[in-house]
Amino acid sequence: MDSSSDAHRRNRCAACFREFNKKEHLVEHMRTSLHSPHDPRCAVCAKHCRSLDALRDHLTGALPKPECAASFASRGCALCLDVLPAAGALRSHSCPKAPQPLGGVLALGCKMVGAGSDGSLDVCARVCVVDEQECVVFESFVKPQIPVTHYRYETTGIRPEHLRDGAMTPKQAARRVQELLLNGELAWKARSSRGRARILVGHGLDHDLEALGMDYPAYLKRDTARYPPLMKTSNSRLSNSLKYLTLAYLGYHIQAGGHHQHPYDDCVAALRLYRRMRARPHCRDQREAGVGPHAPPPTAPEAFPAWRQRELERMSAEELLQLSTTDYYCWCLDATDH
Q1: Which residues does residue 106 pair with via DSSP β-bridges, in sequence order?
Q2: Could you tell me which residue ranges the C2H2-type domain spans (predicted)?
Q3: N or C: which end of the chain has fewer CB within 10 A?
């Protein structure tokens, strides 16, 4: 019994603490788990979690780890999920602050009205672009090219008269947004090399860009709806709402019922979430390993090739973790990209 327990401890994942009967099972786990230094981690036991929601469940969920839950309850920050050295430190604690503005970041927000026979088809009727100082650099109503059947006034505050005089066409709005994003860089060059092009931040960016009829290079998009640490705990990669993320990790309400929702508020919330994630203290392992700032990280087969199986099985759990890499670009790397 004791020897079996010792074997399990020897084959224990250094990130999630899962135990295996055989070393080969641990190696296979590392191939598929995608642990990395960029994972959210418990400040008490150092367990890696796939998302911040998973870390919150670990600390305060239905079945939290007792010692971690006790420490977090007495001296933990509910926003950044950090655990401070002493309870008194909470009074002076401030969540990790983002580095100084990079100057190459813009946030995009759109408000949709309804088209189609039942008003369920989203069409863009208002667009807003905000810089990293949270100043509006472009804002306009947009006149859809198809008839609007539901203005959704209760939430958008948009009336028919807003889309008549002075409203841009979707093509005009898209051209202006693209000019701001490219910042003088040629569109074809921005697809492979950033140059002067700006990072685009938002929530549900693909939906907003599609509504404007435009595209933007994926490596320059920072979408809070698709960033794994901000997604739900399930393996199905479900997005959290911007309203939830703003309350959970920034500590204030947006999109409150009974109030018209301005796209500026969505831009600022997404921008602040991006800056909070960019400020998280991670190891810059991708950069140290020579990976380009926007290049995809090595895949699991590259990090744990089958031909190295015997060598991998001789490694310790900590050495295997050093080889492991995430499957997404961590935004903390943007902080050293300028």
Answers
A1: 131, 200
A2: 11-40
A3: N
Residue-wise pLDDT for 15-63, tens only, equals 999 999 999 999 999 988 888 888 999 999 999 998 999 999 999 988 8
Per-residue tokens: 88:
């008194």
Alpha-carbon distance 335 to 293, whole Å? 10
The count of structural domains within the chain is 2
Distance between CA atoms of 202 and 212, rounded to whole angstroms?
Answer: 14
* Domain shared by 124 and 205, yes or no: yes
The more confidently predicted of residues 200 and 234 is 200
Angstrom distance (rounded) from CA 137 to CA 139: 7
Same domain, yes or no: 206 and 83 = no
Q: Please check whether residue 245 is in contact with residue 274, taking contact to mean a CB–CB distance below 8 angstroms.
A: no
Q: Please give the sequence-ordered ranges of beta strands (E in DSSP) within 67-143, or none if there are none.
A: 105-115, 121-131, 136-141
Query: Helices in 16-169 by DSSP H: which ranges?
Result: 23-33, 52-60, 66-75, 153-156
